[in-house]
Amino acid sequence: MRKGTCKFYNGIANDNCDKGINYREITGGPTFGIGTRLPCVIEGKFSKPKNGEKATCEHFVKPTKKELDDWEESVDRSIKQVSMAIKTIGKTGKQNGVIQCPACNGKLGFSVSPGNGHIWAKCETNNCLAWMQ
Ligand SMILES: [Zn+2]
């Protein structure tokens, strides 16, 4: 969620928004330029269509200031929790294992790449910490 987009917009790397609307179906055109025809983005350089018409969506909802503030706060909190987990994983000295999740105290499984040291991790709790470096 960010300023200038619908609260259900989750990026066009996904097929559908959080409301279940398919990005390709709603723009009704070729793939090229889909990002600028989306009705979900109303501010910034991607808000004006480069080809075709801007699509409309009856489900468009502009996020409130509180929703934007809450979202930003949750992103900041997640970044701190991932940083804590990365330090804890480093202290184990292991290539694979499980640590206590700093967000929910559940089990956070991890794998460290022997090649570049990048970490893949996922908490057992749905919608909790999960990342790939
Ligand atoms: Zn967790």
Bound ions, cofactors and other small molecules, one mention each:
zinc ion
- Total helix count? 3
Please describe the biggest sheet, giving its number of strands, its sense, and whether it closes into a barrel.
4 strands, antiparallel
- Measured between the Cα atoms of the first and last residue, the distance is 22 Å
Radius of gyration of CA atoms, rounded to a whole number: 19 Å
Large-scale geometry = elongated
Q: Tell me the number of strands.
A: 4
What is the beta-strand fraction?
5-15%
How many domains make up the coordinates? Answer: 2
Q: What's the helical proportion of residues? A: 25-40%
The string of secondary-structure elements, in order, is HHHEEEE
Low-confidence stretches: none
Structural class: alpha+beta
Strand order of the largest sheet: 1-2-3-4
Mean pLDDT rating: 93
At a glance:
The protein is an alpha+beta fold.
